[in-house]
Amino acid sequence: MAKNHRSDGPPTDPASRPAPGAVLDRLASGPSRASRITHTEHLPPREGRHAVWSDRIRPEVVAAVQAAGIEHPWAHQARAAEHALDGESVVVATGTASGKSLAYLVPVLSTLLDGAEAPNGRGATALYLAPTKALAADQCRSVKELSHPLGHSVRTAVYDGDTPFEEREWIRQYANYVLTNPDMLHRGILPSHPRWSSFLKSLKYVVVDECHTYRGVFGSHVAQVLRRLRRLCARYGSSPVFLLASATAAEPAVAARRLTGLPVLEVADDASPRGELVFALWEPPLTELHGEKGAPVRRTATAEAADLLTDLTVQGVRSVAFVRSRRGAELISVISQERLAEVDRSLARRVAAYRGGYLPEERRALEQALHSGELLGLAATNALELGIDISGLDAVVIAGYPGTRASLWQQAGRAGRSGQGALAVLVARDDPLDTFLVHHPEALFDQPVESTVLDPDNPYVLAPHLCAAAEELPLTDEDLDLFGPACEDLLPQLEAAKLLRRRTRAWHWTRRERAADLTDIRGEGGRPVQVVEAGTGRLLGTVDAGAAHSTVHEGAVHLHQGRTYLVRSLDLEDSVALVEEAAPPYSTVARDTTSISVLETDVEVPWGDGRLCYGSVEVTNQVVSFLRRRLITGEVLGETKLDLPPRTLRTRAVWWTVTEDQLDRARINPEILGGSLHAAEHASIGLLPLFATCDRWDIGGVSIPLHPDTLLPTVFVYDGHPGGAGFAERAFHTARTWLTATRQAIASCECDAGCPSCIQSPKCGNGNDPLHKRGAVRLLTVLLEGAPEEKEAAAEPPTEGPREPTEAPPAP
User: For the Helicase ATP-binding domain, which residue ranges apply (predicted)?
Assistant: First the structure.
């Protein structure tokens, strides 16, 4: 729970905290360190504006809030609570640590207290949805603390995959504030709705926390899960009010409306105070090493972040280092622990890693240690990005741009949550987008966060939810408006596939298996692969099915809790990877090949002689080998072949073509055509996260000197999810701005022939060969000469499905 005037962590008196500017000065001390800071942004402190709670709030709840140290609400909290009490769905879109939790908790607790006095029945209930188990567990602890003075009127419980079975029946029958996640709602609660009938019948509020995370395919799935929930509530006679919260959302009311299918009001005027934030952009130095094709290599963001976390810990500065990958979190933790041990052995124990894939008891222990102050430093994936209350942090190190400005500000907001000043440092990876951003700070600090992209009508998303809804309760014509206009075409297809059957006025589920098992709402494509220690049979953790081919293939290096393992075998049929502990002096990176074919072109816009297109494609991807890279330096030690099956993906793509005349004007001969297209493809994928709510690993690309479907040189960029996720569509709409930034990023890079900062890709299936930097600049220059104004290129394309070749995300 966000706190207006207090913290549950160690003492956080702002006067006793180190000034963020002073902390940065110490980090940058030394001749080589200072030059790594390319920009420093100072966000000034802000005064808060108070209000009063509505007189409709129960006095016991107001007293409980005051007992927690919060005398008066901020203006946005009081306003959001008023909307909730009026029965109006509302989204609170104010900054990190602005007290959004209190804005929805106060009306919820007041309503639960009213319901507890009902003469008959269970009384009012409320459901809280969080994108992660950790956030739900953290919120449960906060709610119990706040509601303790209210006695047994508020019965709070977490219901997720970690909940012991003996507790579940009590929760269904007696809990009136249930905290869960969309996955459990989809697979556990909705399919078993008769057992939840009394809870659903009394449901007054549904809280959707961190709603900006519900984007792309995951967001589209969650939108349909919420529609299924609303349908069952109506069946039991309830119509809950939706209360949504997000610290980082563009057009929050529009996004909330698409997510819930309901009219939603917006409270976005942040009245909370804010401490000073010093935000530094940090570029690691070039090394003497050379990478693929002799390209210069910068020091890795991982090594640089480990150094910064070490220095912060030595200074006693409480910090989190965010890193994009699980392996990176483990590596930063290990490096930092080793270096701290050289200073003081006791300090090494005060740094740890936190990531998804840990066992529940491991996660809980780490959360508690961070909360109590036992841990001074943590290397974490975005599993810790969301609103977990880790009050008292002084600094955040972000190892690599996290993919969106929304995530960047969410991570930076983890520090300074008690009102004190804070330091945030973005450490650039050797990557086109990161390099562009640290030299163009206006792209971060002068731009709003991205619009949330989701498409509930995506047939790959909608179809399994129609089946799940039909199993929960036969589908009638009256239900179709709730699920959207695409139902009319999909239902006959589901009937033809013998998944649904029409009887009189309703469609029924026909199979014995559970319809909810037809889809994984996070788009991870199958059950997770279990990582098992070969010698003991001990389960270490899990890896998403979609990432298994590239992360736990035979010979892969796997990190877990600071220990290094080598994968001995990967059994795809049983979803098990056997590992054994080892200490190789290298990490591993998978290589793959990709091909793409056009299924349908929805929109085609002339760009001079060339064409910009959007439509459906089919992508075939196969992991074929892996590289061994020396730790810290990233030097390539060798390549090993793999024999893994190909995977296919139907998705959405944007692509552009050029003609012979355009190639002549760009001085592109056949010898450099492939390298020029390939370089433009890599750089455009690297820059797309500036324009769509995605990161590099959500999308893939292919470039072909003569594509069999277009009969022209063609570059494709596609969504890495079945049916598409809205990213390619966004690229189509902003193509002129997007490709202009791409050209600028390549042209302004200081390297001679191309490097990871401009045209080399960390996930290129062809080993970054061929690439031609100057050819890519000339090619994009000629292409952009014929680009129409943005609105002209953006005839609204519909949404459906796709194909590919060179840079592929993990296929589902």
Answer: 81-267
